[in-house]
Write a structure and sequence with these properties.
This protein is of the alpha+beta class. Helices cover 18% and strands 35% of the residues. The protein binds 1-deoxynojirimycin.
């Protein structure tokens, strides 16, 4: 009886399948290496896509489309009016980055859809298949029946074929993406923001993120009915509207990186390839740099941002920092608290910030010329308290003043859960503001390091003056976080989650772990791990965050002096997300290599082969490592520094202490 029933069910399913095939219109685009296939189908009820790699379903049929103007669906009743296919293959150079050349190689399928009803609204979907993943975006062409409209919901889904585990941070909970990343099965996720890093079987990875977020809302995802089907959730305006649009209009790219291992995942440049080429003609001024700052002193309450006895940004103190930077090959000095607006509750009264008026004890003219005479760049600071209207009103005058004074780098900040007390940072409102700042900065020759950003999506390809961003639970949490600071595994997760969205201004480099303000909070690493992080977590603006007095006469600081911030090549030599990472990078301006190895709370023994070095060449290796007695909890400073001559045949055994690491410089001889 049971067998008969199963046979009947099988036959029934087969008939349904035949019917789908008979009514479906089906289109394909295949990656250049032939391994990845995107399939797009149109039925009366829906438009859907699926993805396969090596013949295996990765994304099952998933819905596409929109709900617009509150209750009008734009996801069914379509017919295909035109399709076209094209291929693209170009290698472009980055003005700065983790490697010099990036290959942008894909096959494209463009589908033009029109509603069969008399509304006849049109929607195009463009798919691209790359060797390292796939992407798609929606285009709303200019048309007579759709002009100004509201996106009430984006219906895009990613029906993952397997309920694997994903590394995520929640959307809407916490602020500025400053959460600890957690691993959980896809079906158990909360509403999360992207990037979402999924660990698949056999050491493979899938990354869900977006590229070229322009005049749109940030994409978040949630599992539909606790399944592995993720649906898009766009961050709304305070009105509840997701996106205000006017045709012609395009969405950001939805992208899926498919990687066979951690190195491929890390080195995928899909996100950058999906952004527009560089808009800045002369990029020679876009110079990566290390920097120190009148900064940690504020977080440790030695200095204040505001005026008074503890004011940090004084002319005299800034000169001390400039001298230290100049003596130790550090390119820049960040000065926070130099301008009017910090006195009182600056988060509440962000609109009191002036971006042109220095405090009386900060002689901006003298300091810029002093910095210049010492070959050091002053890095300006524009904390807005989230008052973007106040900031936008001053943008032109502030940036042209900085330009006149020769201040080329500006760190921006938006400390307030809401922009202008109303809108979320990652709403379309926020996205528009950040874009305006980047574009105005580009016109004025200003490089931006943006804190409290919308999650990066690769805009630095188009505007490489957007050099680094925060959007991470960074080192400042080791100053004042009530939970004790960043746990040791945090930095073993960040490179493969937030780090995949772009340069991360984490601001490590603490040498003195004593915290007199919050004694229970501290940097939960060893000293050697602080050094290794300069290689493991990428930013072309890399801070040495501690006070100069904590660096003086410490031989470990030599590594920070030596380590570059601009790279020709990057290799992930080993790692497991959340457990350990070993990264090697080649300097862009020499043949030197640098290696960083870090571990979580567990000690670890690793073997590192130097077969990435140029064959036949000798290198002087300087190694900074934990000793057998080192432990982040009670003996963090114990470090062994030694030299050795090595070549591409060398392999070394490393011991990483609990919460520890190893930093290695390899200077070509
Ligand atoms: C938060 C930023 O992340 C931090 O770096 C800065 O010092 C404060 N805001 C003040 O602007």
């Amino acid at each position: 009886m049971r067998n008969k029933y199963l046979m009947f069910l099988g036959l029934f399913l087969l008939i349904i399948q035949w019917n789908i095939q008979a009514t479906n219109k089906s289109y394909f685009v295949i990656s250049p290496n032939g391994k990845t296939v995107v399939n797009f189908i149109v039925t009366d009820e829906s438009i859907q896509y699926s993805v396969q790699k090596n013949g295996k379903k990765i994304i099952n049929y998933s819905r596409l489309g929109f709900l617009i103007n509150a209750d009008e669906s734009l996801c069914s009743g379509f017919e295909v009016i035109k399709t076209s296919k094209s291929s693209f293959d170009e290698t472009w150079n980055q003005p700065w980055g983790e490697e010099i050349n990036v290959r942008n190689h894909y096959n494209e399928l463009r589908i033009s859809l029109q509603e069969k009803s008399d509304k006849e609204r049109q929607l195009n979907i463009v798919f691209r298949a790359f060797d390292d993943g796939i992407s798609f975006r929606y285009e709303f062409p200019e048309q007579k029946n759709l002009s100004d409209f509201i996106i009430s919901d984006e219906l895009t889904e990613f029906a993952l074929a397997s309920n694997d585990s994903a590394w995520t941070i929640p959307a809407y909970k916490g602020v500025y993406y400053e959460n600890l990343w957690k691993k959980a099965p896809i079906s158990n996720l909360d509403t999360v923001t992207t990037p979402v890093t999924i660990e698949m079987e056999k050491g493979k990875f899938l990354l869900l993120h977006e590229a070229n977020l322009t005049d749109y809302a940030k994409m978040n995802l949630f599992p539909v009915k606790s399944s592995s089907r993720l649906k898009v959730d766009l961050t709304p305006w305070s009105t509840g509207v997701k996106v205000y649009a006017k045709t012609p209009f395009v969405s950001p790219w939805r992208m899926i990186v498919l990687a066979d291992n951690l190195n491929q995942l890390y080195n995928s440049r899909l996100m950058l390839n999906l952004n527009d080429p560089c808009m800045i003609k002369d990029t020679s001024w876009l110079l990566p740099s290390k920097y120190i700052g009148i900064w940690w002193g504020m977080h440790m309450e030695k200095y204040s941002w505001s005026q008074g006895a503890k004011h940090g940004a004084t002319t005299e103190n800034t000169k001390k920092y400039i001298d230290f930077a100049s003596n130790h090959h550090i390119g820049g000095v960040l000065v926070e608290g130099w301008n009017y607006g910090w006195d009182g509750d600056w988060v509440k009264f962000g609109n009191q910030f002036s971006f042109t008026k220095p405090y009386p004890d900060f002689d901006i003219v003298e300091l810029t010329s002093y910095a210049k005479s010492k070959g050091v760049e002053l890095i300006g600071h524009n904390e807005t308290g989230g008052a973007t209207i106040n900031y936008e009103n001053q943008l032109d005058s502030a940036f042209s003043l900085y330009r006149k004074l020769g201040i080329k780098y500006v760190k921006t900040g938006y400390v307030n859960p809401l922009l202008d007390k109303k809108e979320r940072h990652d709403s379309q409102y926020g996205v528009r503001h950040y874009r305006k700042v980047i574009e105005t900065a580009a016109r004025n020759g200003i490089i931006i390091d943006n804190h409290e950003p919308v999650m990066p999506t690769g805009l630095q390809r188009t505007y490489p003056n957007l050099m680094s961003q925060e959007g991470v639970r960074g080192q400042e949490y080791d100053a004042w976080s009530q939970d004790g600071g960043n746990p040791p595994d945090h930095t073993c997760i960040v490179p493969f989650t937030r780090g995949l969205a772009g340069p991360t201004d984490f601001t490590f480099g603490t040498f003195n772990f004593t915290n007199t303000v919050y004694p229970k909070t501290r940097v939960q690493t060893t000293l050697a791990k602080q050094l290794a992080l300069y290689v493991v977590i990428y930013s072309p603006l890399q801070m040495a965050s501690d006070l100069p007095e904590n660096y003086e006469n410490n031989p470990a600081f030599q590594f920070i002096e030596d380590v570059p911030v601009d790279w020709a090549e990057t290799i992930i030599l080993g790692g497991k997300i959340g457990d350990y990472v070993v990264t090697a990078r080649k300097d862009k301006n020499s043949n030197n290599w640098f290696v960083g190895a870090i571990t979580d709370e567990n000690s670890r023994e690793l073997n590192v082969k130097f077969d990435f070095l140029t064959k036949g060449k000798k290198y002087k290796m300087k190694i900074y490592k934990d000793t057998i007695a080192t432990n982040w909890k009670n003996n963090p400073y114990s470090i062994e520094i030694s030299d050795k001559i090595v070549d591409s045949k060398t392999s070394i055994d490393l011991y990483l202490a609990p919460g520890g690491g190893t930093a290695i410089s390899l200077f070509e001889l």
